[in-house]
Amino acid sequence: xxxxxxxxxxxxxxxxxxxxxxxxxxxxxxxxxxxxxxxxxxxxxxxxxxxxxxxxxxxxxxxxxxxxxxxxxxxxxxxxxxxxxxxxxxxxxxxxxxxxxxxxxxxxxxxxxxxxxxxxxxxxxxxxxxxxxxxxxxxxxxxxxxxxxxxxxxxxxxxxxxxxxxxxxxxxxxxxxxxxxxxxxxxxxxxxxxxxxxxxxxxxxxxxxxxxxxxxxxxxxxxxxxxxxxxxxxxxxxxxxxxxxxxxxxxxxxxxxxxxxxxxxxxxxxxxxxxxxxxxxxxxxxxxxxxxxxxxxxxxxxxxxxxxxxxxxxxxxxxxxxxxxxxxxxxx
Length: 332
Ligand code: NCD
Ligand code: ZN
Fold this sequence. Notes:
By secondary structure, this protein is of the alpha/beta class. It has helices at 18-31, 48-62, 81-87, 114-127, 144-158, 172-178, 191-194, 197-202, 218-229, 246-249, 264-274, 281-293, and strands spanning 2-6, 9-13, 34-37, 68-70, 72-74, 93-96, 131-133, 164-166, 184-188, 235-237, 301-305, 309-310, 326-327, 330-331. It has a single domain (2-331), classed as Alpha-Beta Barrel (TIM Barrel). The longest helix has 15 residues, at 48-62.
């Protein structure tokens, strides 16, 4: 049995830089035709020069494979209208991180006070630049995303023309917001469709399953599965593939991030098949994102076949999700 996916898109992707970029970028380019590239490098991407240079380094790392890096800027509230107008030609979105919420987010926003963000959000609305948000407060770890819900609602109602993408949602609370506000959208990762906090910390601690936002409860995973498997038009796939070298994961003080780029498409196909939902896979991994971002990708067909795929233990110094396990579907 075969299935062909047309132009798969990864709408939230960390490609890093230097040696790590050279390891991971070709793996995304093998099975996806484009991806929204996260700007949380050290230092973060905040200038047009930095966008152009990073894009070129990504292209160099990918080589001949057809893959379009869709660039983003790291949100700063002091970007001027003139700057954003020029930046618009080079980016697909701007990513807002609350300061300290996750890996390399120290330069993020320290207050979500609407007035302090108004000018930038208004400029983005007018220029039609989507806002991607890492939506977590600094509250109790299991409540951070739900607490951010009221901030999402404030953003959505105060800036009705701003397209807001709730990144890597993990809770039923966030799912419920999708049908409440026309301008709220979401990405969902592979891991949050598969695991709950039990898989991370319910038994032996699994550092390679530790990410931000942390996996939540069973009812949250159910809510995510409902919208993903039904092809809900406001959700799209964003892997949040976030590679860290083994020594940063298997240590005291494990970095947040799960590396899924090389297994994402096979894992999603396996999941949709198990749930009799293969007919909605195309919407989840490409069509919805095309509509939400108003983006027409190049044509790239990826064929998956129902044959066992045993996931490698590592790619260079990075351990992927499902390392050593066997998935029922593989890339042909
Ligand atoms: C990401 C990373 O490592 O850059 N980590 C993560 O746990 N998801 C950052 C992010 O998207 O939060
Ligand atoms: Zn991320």
